[in-house]
Specification:
Layout: H1 11-17, E1 20-24, H2 39-42, H3 47-60, H4 62-75, H5 79-87, E2 93-99, H6 116-119, H7 124-137, E3 141-148, H8 171-190, E4 196-200, H9 212-226, E5 232-235, H10 240-250, E6 262-270, H11 273-276, H12 280-284, H13 301-304, E7 309-319, H14 321-324, H15 332-350, E8 353-356, H16 371-376, H17 390-416, H18 421-442, H19 463-471, H20 479-500
Helix pairs in contact: 3-4, 8-9, 17-18, 17-20, 18-20
GO molecular function: glucan endo-1,6-beta-glucosidase activity
GO biological process, one term: glucan catabolic process
Family: Belongs to the glycosyl hydrolase 5 (cellulase A) family.
Length: about 500
């Protein structure tokens, strides 16, 4: 077995594989200035957006309509918003939805937006790119969430129930959606958008319907041929186990050509029917068992020849009113805080990232869905490493370096009686790689590798896929030595985190 390549993590690597503490920012580029409190749930296929554009063109003309829409896009997420997200909420990522019309008139051909409505979007993608660059300058990564496939009318509300009758797109609409994803990946690659942490190619839909798995195969093949290092996110469609198995089948290695890593997106809400009979504390007690589907699928990358990580793409502090009715009103604040903190702790320990339901989103039905209110109340807080002052991080980095040799020696001494000499060698190589990787992620902001400055370090979030990335660069893979290397890498990462106490 050749030694896994162990060059330091790149800017792209750190943006994409660190733990993502983030938020959904709403349909900024999918709805114009007409956006109201019903849009979030009712305009699933953008039919209302189209109607509002046509109405505006009829009354104001194309040029003024385009100006109104462009003004909305430019001001929907301001520099002050980004500063608040980074410095107060401590977010290092956002989840940004886009539709096929976001990319301009050429992608609207053959759709209901073709013609004058599509001209409103002439400059939309350039505005998106400008926002992406601003996010980069603030050290905020962006998951581009491609949501709208023309001709598809299925969606799910925040309880996980279908909100409309499913209508599968035509073959031409599937092709258009494929071309949209290819365009995003090309743009990310050509313009070296390090801030793009991945592309989500489905959202809130059952991937078993409409032969979506076949479409996945086609899209993932194209994405891998353009940029095999860019993570692709797929929805679990309400069946996390099945989606994990699908992702693992795509993440197998070694392969003759590079393959885009697949991350599974899942949503966690506690307003569904099965929770309504529970009192708030009973709901909270469900949290520690969440994402148990990962137990048999992680921590054994080499032996399984594949890897998978989960991203909690939506969650909130909401419970059904029936649940709240079981508690006293005076208990609500403390229960809400316990609920939010329990979720944050669980996602940080099990997932590669999470995104709170909403920041500057309409139609969210109460403060429990809104990031600003939940952060201000102390119900949602960032993982401890994102709030550390840079002076503290510098001291911890020095402390880790000074203890490195001693800790490595202790780890090797413990393993030497369990491993052969060759296995010990690869265990040591893995340990050094893991310790260095954890150190480089943690110090990336402090060392100016990630822009924006401010408080906080970073922790490896998608560790399973990071190990896959590290080890899949080898030309040959002896599983026995590979397992020793993986064990060493995991121990090196853990030892670093014990030193810096995160």
């Amino acid at each position: 077995m050749s030694t896994p390549h162990a060059s330091p993590p790149s800017v792209d690597d750190i943006f994409r594989y660190r733990y993502q503490h983030g938020t959904n920012v709403g349909p900024i580029f999918m709805h114009g200035p007409w956006l109201d409190n019903n849009a979030f749930e009712t305009d699933l296929n953008s039919t209302r957006e189209l109607g509002e554009i046509k109405r505006s063109i009829e009354t104001k003309g194309l040029d003024e309509t385009r100006s109104d829409w462009e003004s909305h896009w430019r001001t929907a997420l301001t520099d002050d918003d980004l500063v608040w997200l980074r410095t107060v909420a401590k977010c290092n990522s956002i989840r940004l939805p886009v539709g096929f019309f976001t990319f301009g008139p050429v992608f609207c051909i053959g759709s209901p937006f073709e013609g004058e409505p599509s001209q409103v979007y002439n400059n939309c993608w350039n505005t998106v790119r400008h926002l992406l660059r601003k996010c980069y300058d603030h050290g905020i990564g962006v998951l581009i969430d491609f949501q709208t496939i023309p001709g598809r009318s299925q969606g799910r509300d925040r309880t996980g129930n279908e909100t409309t009758v499913d209508a599968c797109p035509s073959s031409s609409n599937w092709s258009l959606a494929r071309d949209c994803v290819a365009f995003i990946v090309q743009e990310v690659t050509f313009h070296a958008m390090s801030e793009v942490i991945g592309v989500q190619i489905s959202s809130d839909t059952d991937w078993k319907t409409c032969d979506l798995e076949k479409w996945y195969d086609e899209v993932l093949e194209i994405a891998s041929s353009i940029n095999p290092s860019l993570p692709m996110f797929i929805s679990d469609g309400g069946d996390l186990s099945a989606a994990l198995d699908l992702a693992m089948s795509k993440n197998q290695f070694p392969t003759r050509v590079g393959r885009s890593p697949i991350v599974v997106d899942t949503h966690r809400y506690y307003t569904a029917e099965k929770y309504r009979s529970m009192d708030p504390m009973s709901v909270i007690q469900q949290i520690p068992s969440e994402l148990a589907e990962l137990e048999a699928r992680q921590k054994n990358v080499v032996a399984q020849g594949t890897a998978v990580d989960v991203y909690v793409g939506e969650y909130s502090c909401a419970m059904h009113p029936q649940s709240w009715s079981c508690a006293k009103a005076s208990e609500y604040p403390s229960l809400m805080r316990t609920f939010g903190q329990a979720q944050g702790k669980q996602w940080a320990s099990k997932a590669c990232g999470s995104a709170f339901c909403g920041f500057k989103m309409h139609g969210l039905g109460g403060d429990a869905w809104k990031l600003e209110q939940q952060v201000d109340a102390g119900n949602i807080s960032a993982p401890v490493w994102l709030a550390l002052p840079q002076t503290r991080i510098q001291k911890l980095l020095q402390q880790a370096e000074s203890q490195r040799e001693h800790v490595r020696g202790g780890s090797l001494s413990h393993e030497s009686s369990l491993l052969s000499s060759s296995e010990c060698h690869y265990y040591e190589l893995g340990w050094d790689t893991g310790f260095s990787d954890a150190l480089n992620f943690f110090g990336a902001v402090s060392h100016g590798i990630i822009p924006g400055g401010g408080e906080g370090g970073d922790r490896i979030g998608a560790l399973e896929l990071w190990i896959r990335k590290r080890i899949s660069r080898t030309n040959s893979l002896d599983k026995q030595l590979g397992r020793a290397w993986e064990k060493g890498l995991r121990k090196g990462v853990d030892d670093f985190y014990k030193i810096v106490r995160i």
